Amino acid sequence: MAHPAIDIKSEIGPLKRVLLHRPGGELENLMPEYLERLLFDDIPYLKIAQEEHDAFCQLLRENGAEVVYLTDLVSESLTDEQVKEQFVLEYIREAGVRGEKRTAMIAQRFLSMSTHNMVSAMMAGLRKSQVRGYGRKNLTDYLADDYPFVLDPIPNLYFTRDPFAAVGNGVTIHHMHTVTRRRETLFAQYIFTHHPQYKDTPVYYDRNAESSIEGGDLLVLSPQVVAIGISQRTQPWAIEQLAKRLLSPEVGFSQVLAFDIPKNRAFMHLDTVFTMVDVDKFTMHPGISSHLRLFVLELEDGHLTITEEEESLENILKEHLNLDAVTLIKCGGGSVIDAAREQWNDGSNTFCLSPGRVVAYSRNHVTNRVMEDAGIEVLTIPSSELSRGRGGPRCMTMPLVRGAI
User: Fold this and answer.
1) Among 39, 124, 134, 144, which is least packed by CB within 10 angstroms?
2) Where are the domains of the chain?
3) What is the CA 383 to chain-centroid distance, rounded?
4) Residue of 57, 331, 352, 395 marked catalytic
């Protein structure tokens, strides 16, 4: 029997199908002076980053998962020429290009390519030097004369966790916090509108909503409970709107746990604070306070209710997941130095293949050893270049189907 298109009822159920994006030309368009604009701290070496990513994909396949690629799904969604042209024009507009002639020139460039090459080229961005006859046509051009791109690259795409999230049997397509990442969700929009396998998927949040939310802040802890981080990039209003959908009878979750986490880059998303690695085991950021502010959202008689709690992460998880005990595995163990170094490389951002089996970066050897001591099987991948993007194995994956626990 074929798996449903989307089926995610936990963080740890056996992985059946997962979406990834193999890093491409977008990383070759990173420049030191524009790293902050594009949310990078360093420039990965593409050749090695691709080798590391391929090793990651192979590991997932060897452990029984079907790997699908973002570029393939987008290409398969654009078989209708009218839809393809609409997609290109929408992408160009959202990239900030102005003027009918320039828009037509860029659109023609993309539409002359094969669909797969076109999608890859759009992800990579477009240099002024690649456009024949590009010149200063308007006031914006004169003021931005030194800027080398017509279309910015989209280098964060290999973190497929953020632009949309699979929750239950549907998806949330996100309004990203930063302008530089908003085009990423356009790819998801077309997949879930036009792809033959995914076009009938229920959508619980719209990318055009006013408030931002990102996938790293969504954790499906059980078939009843979804955790969402109130973070630097996910706003309270977005959580309320999403909670109303997730708690509705047709979707079927019973609680949304909204965790108030620090609003800074060290705690960018909830999955940098903790990730689930087994039924009763979690990795955690060592810097979180002993007590967390939590808001429990539930639906009663069609109305959203909010209850505030302040408890330790351990007690919160025990209570809301009905567990007798919880093991929290600190990134870096008990060492302040090891924790700081390995948290910088997303030591607590693990990706679960099945209960008690996780993928982690090999470089975070202290945290990996602590997980093994707690009974977790740790499968490691090389990460000298992938880690430069400041995201771990969970950040790089969007599970589409998991088995039941």
Assistant:
1) 144
2) 158-402
3) 18
4) 395
Q: Which conformational region is residue 143 in: left (phi greater than 0), alpha (psi within -120 to 50 degrees), or beta? A: alpha
Question: Hey, what amino acid is at 202?
Answer: P
Residues sharing a CB contact under 8 Å with residue 1, sequence separation 6 or more, in sequence order: none
395: annotated active-site residue = yes
Q: Tokens at residue 329, please? A: 């595995």
Q: Assess contact for 376 and 281: CB atoms under 8 A.
A: yes
In sequence order, the 6+-apart residues with CB closer than 8 A to the CB of 298 are: 247, 254, 255, 256, 304, 305, 307
How many Å apart are CA 352 and CA 346, to the nearest integer?
Answer: 14
- Burial class of residue 240, CB neighbours in 10 A (0-12, 13-18, 19+): middle
Predicted TM-score (pTM) of the model is 0.92
From first to last of the 405 residues of the chain, give the pLDDT tens digit.
456 799 999 999 999 999 999 999 999 999 888 888 888 888 999 999 999 999 999 999 999 999 999 999 999 999 999 999 999 999 999 999 988 988 999 999 999 999 999 999 999 999 998 887 676 666 666 555 678 899 999 999 999 999 999 999 999 999 999 888 999 999 999 999 999 999 999 999 999 999 999 999 999 999 999 999 999 899 999 999 999 999 999 999 999 999 998 776 656 789 988 899 999 999 988 877 667 889 999 999 889 999 999 888 899 999 999 999 999 999 888 788 998 888 888 888 999 999 999 999 999 999 999 999 999 999 999 999 999 988 899 999 999 999 998
